[in-house]
Amino acid sequence: MPMKQIKRWIQSYSLFIVFASLLLIVFEWLVRGEIIPSFIIPAPTSVIVMILENWRPLVLEHLSATMLEFFIGFFISVIGGVLLAVWMFFSKTVEKMLYPAVLISQMMPIIALSPIFVLWFGYTLWSKVAVTVLISFFPIVVGTYDGLKSGDKEYIELLRSMGATRWHTFTKLNIPMALPSFFSGLKLATVYALVGATIGEWLGASEGLGYYSRRMSGNLNAEGVFAAITILTIIGILLFSVMTAIEKKALHWKNTE
Amino acid sequence: MTLVLKNVSYTFTNKGNQHNKVISELSMQVNRGEFVSLIGKSGTGKSTILKLVTGLLKQDEGEISINGKSISLGDVGYMPQRDLLLPWRSIIDNIIIAAEFRKDLQITREEARNWLNHVGLIEYENALPKQLSGGMRQRAAFLRALLTGKDLLLLDEPFGALDAFTKREMQAWLLSIWQELNKTVLFITHDLEEACLLSDRIILLHPDKKIEEINVDLPRPRFPDLLHSTELAGLRHELEKKIANETD
Predict the structure, then answer these.
(1) What is the mean pLDDT of residues A192-213?
(2) pLDDT at position B66 over 90
(3) Domain count, chain B
(4) In CATH, what number is assigned to the domain containing residue B61?
(5) Domain boundaries in chain A?
(6) Closest residue to A168, CB basis, from B54, B101, B148
(7) Between B78, B80, B100, which is nearest A172 by CB?
(8) pLDDT reported for residue B247
(9) A46-255 in CATH: which number?
(10) pLDDT-derived band at B248, boundaries 50, 70, 90
(11) Which of A125, A211, B173, B218 is an S-S bond match for A201, by CB 3.0 to 4.6 Å?
């Protein structure tokens, strides 16, 4: 990372890092001083110890299961969401028919809906994938569709005056113009998909970090619960950062000075 | 290349289904190599005429033809008021975009580079539009219209958004390049001085849908110094009076 970027990173996040560090120190002190019992909130150091001592089952067994659900669900959401958005863009009838359905799918309480997936798919991988898709599909569809619709009429007219067909304007104008909005949706969907996989595991699973945190909660093992949450948070940040890096690369023209 | 509009009418229908006849039985002609400006108050249909000539709008009645052939999309080079350079494309990729839509149009990157060199933009070949000043962007937009390879260029208030100094520079630049290329230009402007400086002929659009043609008998080649001449001032004064006497 060049010096300039490091400086910018420090400028952006130094206050947050100081705040988070202080918060962790305060919690450590509260728990060590027995002001807060450790089964309510564990000391941050004991969560780290928990992760280090149990990294093999946590990472190899549970994290890998959650990530498998995440990747399958996310992949289906991205492919399906983009295809649906493009279809709605080209067909007013499809838009009128399906756009409200996409919106309504987000009004439904996912937690209440999830047992239905268990009913349909059993305690298999696919019930978790279904929750993941349901929760992460929406930002992809809406982000892509709104981006495609944002094509300025004047640009379209200019390209058409040069003899561009609708396919030309779609590929040369609508797609590039949709990318910023698509990436906003993609970043949200990344986070949502991880949440979806975890919720899916709560409702019925035999592995995965959601399942692990629930089992630890039943055993009143706060360190175990927080260990799973910590790993999920780190993975979420990493995935979000990867998406942001891809976005920056794809939209380099926006960042060029 | 001769552009002919014969008894052209166009009615605009808004979302409330209200009809507004913007152009009524308009007949005009632009001859090969001519620089013709359209002037008139807002709402007299200047931009509509340009959109009809590009083929973006279809007239309700009448005929629009170039060399006797009805116009269709892709027959003219069009430059709108905003430069509309695609922000994710480099300048060179912007100016040759028309070649991506038309199989009959071949522009090599070498040719495009020569043109960029010709208009003083070669250093910005790979720059993004936002890295250029307003005047440079307009020059790039003009090149994009020029590289459509069409003899008729439609320029819709291309310098309307520029500051006064850049505008003068761009007028001088357009005069020199037009005189060199011998293209036919149909130009829209609200700036009467600009119309007098650049045009061979000015078509004044009246609110009652009638038109009036004014020949600009100033010698060519012209230079921006002409703006200070009494002849141009007199012509501008005459136009001002005609527009001021109009009733909406």
Answers:
(1) 91
(2) yes
(3) 1
(4) 3.40.50.300
(5) 46-255
(6) B101
(7) B100
(8) 60
(9) 1.10.3720.10
(10) low
(11) A211
